[in-house]
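Quick illustration, no need to memorize.
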Amino acid sequence: MSNAELANALLLACQQRGIMLATAESCTGGLIIAALTDIAGSSAVVDRGFITYSNEAKMEMLGVSAATLDAHGAVSRETVLEMASGALAHSRASLSLAVTGIAGPSGGSADKPVGLIWFGLALAGQPVVAERQLFGHKGREFIRHETVRHALQLGLRALG
C-alpha cells in the first residue's frame, strides 16, 4: 500500500469510529499531517498537527518536560510518549501519532544512529505506547518516507 492509500485508510478508520486525529512530528517536519490533509475531506477527522522540531517547541506546544529531554534526549522512548500524550491533551483528538528521530545525514551517534526513529501513539482511554524502528543510514528522504509510512500503519493497527 502506498502512503496515500495508508493515509486514506487511516482517515476512513477514524471516521468510522467518530474520532479526531492529531500528529506531533519532529523529524518528519509535518509530512504525516501533510499525507493526511492531501486527501479531500480529511477535515472531518484531522484536528491538528504539531510540528515540534526544537526541544523548546516540544516543551511549549506539547508539554514535554525539560527533565525528560535532559535525561533522555529528544530522540527517546520517554520523549515520544510525552509527545503523544501532549498532542491528545492539547487538541480535540482521541488519537495521536508522534515521531522523533534522526533522519540524517548527520547527527547520529553510537547510541542513536542515523535512521533511529521513535514512534508514539496515544488513543484516548488506553495506555500510550512507543515503538522503536531503525531504518538504517539510507538517506534522509528514505528515512522520512518510511517514518510516515510506519506512523500511518501504527495508527491503522491501533484502530484495528
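The radius of gyration is 14 Å.
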